[in-house]
Amino acid sequence: MKRPTIADIARLAGVSKGAVSYALNGQPGVSESTRRRVLAIAEEIGWNPNGAARALSGAPSHTVGMVLHRPARILGVEPFFMELISGVEAELSARSYALTLQVVADQPAEIAVYRRWWGERRVDGVLVCDLRVDDPRIPVLSELTLPTVVVGMLGESAELVSVWSDDAAAVVEAVEYLSALGHRHIARVGGLPELRHTAARTAAFEEVCRRLEVAPALTISTDYTGEDGARATRRLLSSPRRPTAILYDNDVMAVAGLAVAHEMGFSVPADVSLVAWDDSVLCQLVHPPLTALSRDIPAYGGHAARQLLDVITGLPASSVQDETAHLIPRGSTAAPPSATGRGA
After folding, report:
1. What domains are there in the chain, each with its CATH number?
2. How far apart are CA 291 and CA 153, in angstroms?
3. Count of beta carbons in the 10 Å neighbourhood of residue 319
4. pLDDT in tens, 256-289
5. How far, in whole angstroms, is CA 257 from its chain's centroid?
6. CA nearest to 39, candidates 26, 54, 50
């Protein structure tokens, strides 16, 4: 089927191609009735602007970009990103914006995508996820002056706008809860150590364990996959002084850890308590259901999208703190064996 062109619109509207161009780009030179007729015909025949021509004219693309440096197989099974994207999409579609999502193999490839999008005017702005310690993307995006909102805490001196959640406070709540149950040997299965939110969680975990005299504050780093979460759980439950409670950095690893505990003959929570980060349906479908740190992730994505649209349209926008994850106790946590008379 032939793609509709400006010439087709001009023929159907009975005007020149120049008049069609003025009408489609919101420029003066045509009457309001002609503009409305041209726009109606363009919509009726399914006309879309050519990307290269739009870039030359400087017209907005009404598209927001997101580049993710994670294996596609992880994105397919991790509820967090699916829920985050659903919130972003809901907000964008309500404002007639689209989302362009690209998965890349490494950070240089991600930066190359931003430069290409900027040069081609492919997107009006970008959402940046998985903030790293000393992240090289931030100065590049600042230099390009590409409208950007970072999903994560940047720090007070950063030029870009961010939407972030207090990961440290959530860690403290989880460890204080386990300590109140009587646990004195708590381990953590963490995510990628180079991520800024992982570093914040690790620092908070170590500090609260020292304060509550919970030792040792052991964190095993993983790549967030169920396979890595399972391996870390086997290592912890096979150690001479196994922990009585384990905190996981995502729900996928917590579900995998629960399966490993059952496989090794441990009862949850009688022998070991488990806590997941970022509650999801997965946490509620397993047996026992997993105690989890919960927050409204689609709302988090929607908030980030609204901030970005404000930046794009020139409205005042500043970094804001979103909802802190809060603990929802379920059947996977209880007093440790020593507190119930079972023995370690």
Report:
1. 6-48 (1.10.260.40), 63-164+297-323 (3.40.50.2300), 167-294+327-340 (3.40.50.2300)
2. 26
3. 17
4. 999 999 999 999 999 999 999 989 999 999 999 9
5. 23
6. 26
